């Protein structure tokens, strides 16, 4: 059974990684995954809900963030320990069926994974991610870019019109 009751994580700007005023949204077991359907089920959910730029891969092992796009990450197979928010941020264990929505500016990195990890990523239409690592000189340009990123027109998990409910309230 899919679980569409999300957990919210509020991450602070640590001076290097801006993160975002919007919360990270985590849906545990958002999609029922079987060994045969993981990637296709997540890709189809994202596609059905209008999210684009869909890719299959993993999560980089170094802190990075995207100032120009929100990013949905679905775990299609395996498990991963991720750190969100930078070196002092939150650590989460994600497993097949979990989906996490990162607002633009949210630092993330892979701290360890199972050998079979497969992540599906996607972005709202018209948004293309840049790749920033918290290097000197990235800000305030990154801050301006993050502030300019539009809220998504549809929730990537529920398909509801408008941005995800927790972002409407922020």
Write the layout of secondary structure elements.
Layout: E1 7-9, E2 24-27, H1 38-48, E3 52-57, E4 71-77, E5 79-84, E6 90-95, E7 99-102, E8 108-113, E9 118-123, H2 141-148, H3 165-168
Antiparallel strand pairs: 1-2, 2-7, 3-9, 4-7, 4-9, 5-6, 5-8
Q: How does this model look, in words?
A:
By secondary structure, this protein is of the alpha+beta class. Helices cover 14% and strands 28% of the residues. The protein has a single domain (7-151), classed as Jelly Rolls (Sandwich), CATH 2.60.120.10. A six-stranded antiparallel beta sheet has the order 1-2-7-4-9-3, with helices on one face. Strands 6-5-8 form a three-stranded antiparallel beta sheet, with no helix packed on it. Strand 5 (79-84) and strand 6 (90-95) form a beta hairpin. The protein is globular and about 45 Å long. The chain starts with 6 loop residues before the first strand and ends with a helix. The mean pLDDT is 95.
């Amino acid at each position: 059974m899919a679980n569409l009751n999300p957990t919210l994580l509020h991450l602070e700007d640590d001076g290097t990684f801006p993160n975002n005023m919007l919360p990270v949204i985590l849906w545990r077991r958002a999609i029922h995954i079987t060994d045969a359907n993981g990637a296709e089920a997540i890709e189809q959910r994202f596609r059905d809900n209008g999210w684009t730029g869909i890719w299959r891969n993993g999560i980089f092992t170094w802190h990075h963030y995207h100032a120009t796009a929100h990013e949905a990450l679905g775990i299609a197979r395996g498990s991963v320990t991720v750190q969100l928010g930078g070196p002092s941020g939150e650590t989460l264990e994600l497993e097949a069926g979990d989906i996490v929505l990162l607002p633009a500016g949210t630092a993330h990195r892979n701290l360890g994974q199972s050998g079979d990890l497969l992540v599906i990523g996607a972005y709202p239409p018209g948004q293309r991610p840049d790749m920033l690592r918290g290097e000197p000189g990235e800000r305030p340009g990154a801050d301006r870019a993050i502030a300019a990123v539009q809220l998504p027109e549809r929730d990537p998990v529920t398909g509801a019109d408008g941005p995800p409910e927790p972002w409407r309230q922020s």
